[in-house]
Design a protein that fits this description.
It is built from 9 helices and 15 strands. It is an alpha+beta fold. The longest helix is centred in the first third of the chain and has 27 residues.
Amino acid sequence: MESTQTPWWRADVLADRRPFLAARGRIVAAIRGFFAERDFVEVETPILQRSPGNEVHLSAFATERIAPDGARDRLYLHTSPEFACKKLVAGGVPRLFTLARVFRNGERSRLHHPEFTMLEWYRANEPYEVLIEDCSALMRVAAAAAGMNVLGFDGETVDPAAPVERVTVAEACLRHGIDLLATLGDPDRPDREMLVAMARAAGVRVAEDDTWSDVFTRILVDRVEPALGRGRASALTEYPAPEAALARRKPGDPRVAERFELFACGVELANAFGELTDADEQRRRFTADMDEKQRRYGDRYPLDEDLLAAVAAMPPTSGIALGLDRLVMLSTGARRIEDVLWAPVAA
């Protein structure tokens, strides 16, 4: 069916977006300057991968490679440059960043686009908390490059100069009467029934076939996340271990992992990990996630054996993925992600 939507390239339509796009260029230049000042190397990673990633709910675009001899095999457009970046860290690049085009199928909304830009960076031999300071500085850099004093979206604003609020997932849940840690006596077998009872008491809708993970996600989306990133950015830290497939567990408390998400104006901007470097544990987690993906969606993605070898060779590392387009949106006051894209994917 032919689209009746006004073409994004028409002069009057493009003219409306040009101020946002000009600011995008300044923000990208400022980000590159930020990392150059800190001795990071900018890298480029391949889009085509044997595995697009092994997250349960992400859907990848698949394609077919034809070898010179006519042999065919399946490749995917990556959902993140993470796997290639970790291989580079393992290979001896201790500080790197990339601005990568990434692809996620089944996603399109004001905050989602099937092709978008991910800013990822990695710090070897540094604690993951330092990434919160990086995020704070990058918000200031982006706002200044856009000529703004605040970040804004849907009537909410954040002062990029204000200290980032740091709150653990457990603390955030307790604000709603939910003792999340009590359900994690055995973090490998969290107590679903206990969490269901607490969620329902807090007014969170729960379906009969929801897993512990489903209930946890509903609590986050319905109760926790709407209160984050108001006035100042929030870092939601120490995710429960079952919700951090790529992160190492917190020393001294295996119930939680070294993971945080950054929120501003109610929008998730970034996802960070103290990276897991135990290849056997990583294989176990990936396999369990692909089993769950198979159960839910009838599909699974292959494991990247090269990545697992690199994980075993990585030094202690902290890594983060930040949605560049969302940062540009908040820094310019744009209403939707397509306002800050030069050429959106055809609707």
